[in-house]
Amino acid sequence: MSELEVLEQIKLSPKDFATDQDVKWCPGCGDYSILKQVQSIMPELGRKKEDIVFISGIGCSSRFPYYMNTYGMHSIHGRATAIASGLKISRPDLSVWIVTGDGDSLSIGGNHLIHMIRRNFDLNVLLFNNEIYGLTKGQYSPTSKAGKVTKSTPMGSVDHPFNPMALCLGASATFIARTLDRDPKHQREVLLQGSKHVGTSIIEIYQNCNVFNDGAFEVFTDKGSKPIETLMMESGQPLVFGAESEFGIKLDGSTPRVVELSSVSKNELWIHDEKDRFKAQLLTSFFDDPTVEGHLPRPFGVFYQEDRFRYEDAISQQIERAIEIKGKGDLAKLLSGNNVWKVG
Amino acid sequence: MKIVEEKNEVTIVFAGDSGDGIQLTGTQFTTTNALFGNDISTFPDYPAEIRAPQGTVAGVSGFQLKFGSNEVYTPGDICDVLVAMNAAALKVNLPRLRKNGTIILNTDGFNAKDIKLAKYENNPLEDKSLDDYRTIQIDVSKLTKAALVDSGMGKKEIDRSRNMFVLGFLYYMYSRKLENTEKFIKEKFAKKPELIDANLKVLNAGYNYADTSEIFTSRYNVKAAELPKGEYRSIMGNQATAIGLVAASQKAGLDLFYGTYPITPASDILHELAKHKNFGVKTFQAEDEIAAICSVIGAAFGGKLGVTASSGPGIALKGEAIGLGVMLELPMVICNVQRGGPSTGLPTKTEQSDLLQAIYGRNGEAPMPVIAASSPSDCFETVYEAVRIAIEHMTPVFFLSDGYIANGSEPWKFPNPDSLKEIKAPFINGEVEKPFLPYRRDQNFVRRWAIPGVEGLEHRIGGLEKQDETGDVSYDPENHEKMVKIRQAKVDAVVNSIPLQEINNGLPEGEVLVIGWGSTFGVIKTAVKKAVEEGVKVGHIHLRYLNPLPKNLGELIQKFDHVIVPEMNNGQLVKILRDKYLVDAKGINKIKGIPFSTQEIIDAIEDSIIKV
Ligand code: SF4
C-alpha cells in the first residue's frame, strides 16, 4: 500500500483524537490551544490511533495524555523522557509524543532530557514553557526571568534562567523549534514540521499561564509589539521583521545586527538555513530581555534540523548483526555453557 | 614418586596484589576441580579501589574456594592453605588460616619494602610468628624469570605470568592435570602466540618444580563428589541471574529489555546480558538509576519484559518509579544485588540489609512481591520465578541477591529448556468490552496487559489514583480505599501460585527452627547438618518467597520450641516474622560485610537451647 492509500484508509479527523474526559485546565489557559492544534495535526501523521502514544510527566501540561484518544501515560515528575526512551527502544514502531513543561523537563527532569536528546530517538517533545510552576500554585521555574517575584521568591528570584533552545542544541538536538500558544497557525506549521522529523524533535511552546504568570509572553503575542519583537524564521528566506518587514538581521562578522531595509538590500541579510549548526547557535542566543534597550527580536520557527542516526535503530541493527554472526539464540546452549561435565 | 594422600575437602585462599591475577588463578583452579568432578563453592574478595597502592593491605585481592568429595555448601570458614604473593596478602589473610595450615609464600614479595608497605614491624618470615604453620617458601619471581629466560620478554611481562607458576604448583600438589588451563591459555591469547608459549612454559615450570623439589613428600587428592547424576557446569550468581532472565524471556515469548546503570556488585548482569543480543535482548545503559527503571516502565508499557538491576543506593533512587510501576500494574523485575549500607556503605562487601527496603520502601501503600536467591546457581531459578510472578500477576517484583552469591560460584546441574515452567502473559486475545476497561481484573485481581498497537484498546494510565475498572483519575475517598485494598489483595494472591514451604534441612519438628533467607543458605545448611549429627533437634527453613510468605509457614513454625533467624543485617526478616506470626523469634546478626561461619550458626543454635 502506498503512503497515500494508508492515509486514505485511516481517514481520521481531529475529533477522533478527543476523549470523553472533561478538560480540567483553568479557563483561558494556553494549554487549550495547544491541545486543539495537536489534535488537528494528528490525522496528518498517517498513523493509526493505536500506534500513537503520549507520555507526560507531572505539571499542568502533563494532564495532556488524558485528553488524547491514543495510548497514553501520565507518569511521574520529570521522567516522561526516560519512560519514552525505554518505550521507543523496545517499540521502534510506535509514534511517541512527550508532553512536558519547563519545571518537568528543565528542572527535575533535566538530566533525562539532555541524554534523551543526544541519543536522538525518533520521537517528539512538546515543551510547554510558561515560566512558572502552575500545578503547585505559582513558584518560579528554571525559565522564570531573574528578579521574578513569586510566592517562593517574594524579593525576586536570584536564579539565572535557562535558555531552553540553546540547552537542547548544546545537547546535540537534531530538531529544535519555538512557537506560541496564541499563534495557532504558526503552531500548527511547526508541529507538523516536527512530526515529520525523523529523530528527536523539540518544540518549545510559549504558553500563557493566565493564573500565575499572566502575560509572560505578551510582548510576543500582543498585536502592537509582536511584529517588532518576534522574528519568524523561514527556511531559505532572509531574516526580516517589523510590521512592514522594515527590519532585517545582518551578520557583521559573527555579530548579528538589526538593520533597516531602507538602507540595506535584502541580499545582504542573513538567509535562514535550518541545516547550519553554527548559525543556529547564534539564533538560539537571541534571548535578550525585551525590555532592554537595543535587544534582538525573539526567533520563532525551526532553528535547526539535522539528519542523524537514531539510537533505537542502532540497537536493532546490533541485534540483527549479532544474529547474523552467532545465529539465533539457542537456549539449550546458553544454559549448558562451554564447560560441561557429566556425573554418573 | 610421592605418596598420594586422600582428603575429603580442602579450602584454599589465593591472595596477592590486585594486579597479581588472583581472580584468574582462583577461577582456573575452580574450573579444573569442577571439571574433575568436585563439588565447589567460591568466594572472591576484592578491594573497592580498582588500583589501590601496590603492596599495601588495601590492595589485597583474595579468592577463596572449597572443593570436596562431599557436597559443599559454603566456600569454607577456615582455610587449609593460604597462597600469599606478598607480605600484605599474608597479613590480611592469615587470620583465616587454621593452625597447622599450609602457607605457600612468594619470598620475592617479602623484601624490606613489602614488609614496610604491609605495615609489619618485622619480617614475618624471620621472626617466629609463622611457627604454628607449615610454610612453603618459593621465590616465584625468580623461578618464573628462569623459565622465561630465552623469551626475550621484559620484567613486567614476565612478572605478569607469575600466577601461572603458582597454579602449576598447586595442580601438582592436588594431583590435577594442566589440560583445562592449557586450553584456556590457548584461547585467551589466541591473538598473541608469544604469550601462549610463555604462559604454558611457566605453568609447566610450576608443576615440575613441585614434582622435582623436595618441598613435600606427599601430594593430595580430593576425589570426585557424588553429586546427583546429570550434566553440570560452573556458574556465578550474576551470570545465573542474567541467563535466568534470558530463559524466562524466551519461555514467555517476550523480548527482554534491560535498562540499568553501572553499580557494584550488579554490573556483571549487564555485561553478561550485553553478550546475548542474538536472543533479542536489548540492553540500555541509562544516564542514571532513575532513567534505568523508567525506561523499564516504558518497555513494560510497550509489552516487553522489562528488567532493571542495581544495589542499595541505586534502588533507593528508583523508589518513586517502582511505586509508579505498582500503580500502573505493569510487569517488571527489579534486581537488587545487595551490598553493605547505608549510603555508599561497603560497595564490595556483602550484606542482606535491603529486605525491608524491598518490602516496604516506597511512599504510600505500595505492596509488591519480593523473592530472594539462596546460592549462585539458585539465582537462575529464583529470577525465573520473579519474571513468572511479574508477568502472570501484572506487578513489579523484587529479586534479591547479594555480593556474596553474585560473585561466588558453584557447580550447577543446569536444566533442559523444555523442563522450564511456561510463562503466560495476560495479553488480550479476541473480543473486548466497549468501552475498554483497562483495570478490569480476574479472580486473582490481575488486570490484562493492553499494549500499544492493538486497535480498540487505546487507554490512558498514570500515577494518579484511578477509578476501579475504568482507570480514570479519581479522588473519590471510597474508591481510594478500595483500590489500596485491591492492590494489596493482588499481591497477597501471589501466594496461590507459589509452592508451600518445606523444611529444607534437619528435622520437621523439635527444639530449634533456624529460618534464613538469601545467601546464608549454605552456611545454615552445613551448621544444621552438624547440629543434627550432634543430636540437637533442629530444623532449617530457607525462604525464597519473602512477600507474600508461603501459606503454611505459620504451621511449620509452631512445631518448634524456639526460632532463630540468622541474617547479615541488624534484624529485618525477624521483625517481619514476629509481626506476622507473633512468634518470639530471635535475631542472630552479623554485620561485618562477611558471611557467617558455620561455627557461628552452630553456636547460635546451641545458645538458643541453653539460654532457656
Ligand atoms: S495553573 Fe496556569 S498553566 Fe496550569 S492550568 Fe491553570 S492557567 Fe494553565
Topology:
The complex is a heterodimer of chains A (344) and B (612).
Chain A: H1 3-10, H2 31-41, E1 52-56, E2 71-74, H3 80-90, E3 95-101, H4 102-108, H5 110-119, E4 124-129, H6 164-170, E5 175-180, H7 184-196, E6 201-206, H8 218-221, H9 226-229, E7 230-232, E8 240-241, E9 247-252, E10 255-260, H10 277-284, E11 298-305, H11 311-326, H12 331-336, E12 341-343
Parallel strand pairs in A: 1-2, 1-3, 3-4, 4-6, 5-6, 7-11
Antiparallel strand pairs in A: 5-11, 8-9, 9-10
Chain B: E1 3-7, E2 9-17, H1 22-36, E3 39-45, E4 60-68, E5 79-84, H2 87-93, E6 97-106, H3 112-117, E7 134-138, H4 140-147, H5 155-160, H6 162-173, H7 179-188, H8 193-212, E8 218-222, E9 230-236, H9 237-252, E10 256-260, H10 267-274, E11 282-285, H11 289-301, E12 305-310, H12 312-328, E13 332-338, H13 355-360, E14 370-372, H14 378-393, E15 396-402, H15 403-407, E16 409-412, E17 460-462, H16 477-492, E18 505-506, E19 510-517, H17 521-533, E20 538-543, E21 545-547, H18 553-558, E22 560-567, H19 573-581, E23 586-589, H20 598-610
Parallel strand pairs in B: 1-8, 2-5, 5-6, 6-7, 10-11, 10-12, 12-13, 13-15, 14-15, 19-20, 19-22, 22-23
Antiparallel strand pairs in B: 2-4, 3-4, 9-16, 14-21, 18-20
Helix pairs in contact in B: 1-6, 1-7, 6-8, 7-8, 9-10, 9-14, 11-12, 17-20
